[in-house]
Amino acid sequence: MARYTGPVCKLCRREGTKLFLKGTRCFSAKCAFEKRSYIPGQHGQGRRSKLSEYGIQLREKQKVKRMYGVLESQFRNYYERASRQKGVTGENLLSILESRLDNVIYRLGFAPSRNSARQLVLHRHFTVNGRRVNVPSYRVKPGDIISVQDKSRKLTVVHDSMRKMKDESLVPWLRVDKAKLEGEFLERPARQDMPIDVQENLIVELYSK
Fold this sequence. Notes:
By secondary structure, this protein is of the alpha+beta class. Among the domains are: 49 residues, Orthogonal Bundle (Ribosomal Protein S4 Delta 41, Chain A, domain 1), CATH 1.10.1050; 88 residues, Structural Genomics Hypothetical 15.5 Kd Protein In mrcA-pckA Intergenic Region, Chain A (Roll). 40% of the residues lie in helices and 8% in strands. It has 9 helices and 5 strands; from the N terminus they run αααααααβββαββα. Strands 2-1-3-5-4 form a 5-stranded antiparallel beta sheet, with helices on one face. A hairpin with a 2-residue loop joins strand 1 and strand 2. Helix 4 packs across helix 5 and helix 6 packs across helix 7. The longest helix has 16 residues. The protein is globular and about 50 Å long.
């Protein structure tokens, strides 16, 4: 299955909630979801029907998968890894997703969205512990230092994103030094510290069938 390359606002409309895939635009009056929150398609306005239990679980999985920009096979692998770890499977799954390099860069404020962070990583604009990494799914570990490449320190997208980021929006499991354009992954995130409105238990129930 290829990665989705169509209008990302349609994904928010399909899931019936904002996935914040376009950064600051999602908070502005230009947000397509604010204007048309119904399902995309010719008959979208009349298609909101009561979902079955399976449908509710499936929509929650699709929402999380699209929020983090991962493919179905990747998501399944993350779930299987989470189920083998100690602790609550759903929380382990979210912790793994939050530990992805593209997500960490987004959380640090170096990119306005996860999609933008993914592009920046692919173009080798970041290092982890001084080593260039161009794999968005790279799993960051506690103690890792994420820095903007020396040759990329003047990127407009990075500075614009950092300027718009509010200090109180930084999650407690990350530390950022705006002057040095670097951040540190302090610890594995706990569920209460992940600012995402999802019901991970529904995903566990779906995969447990």
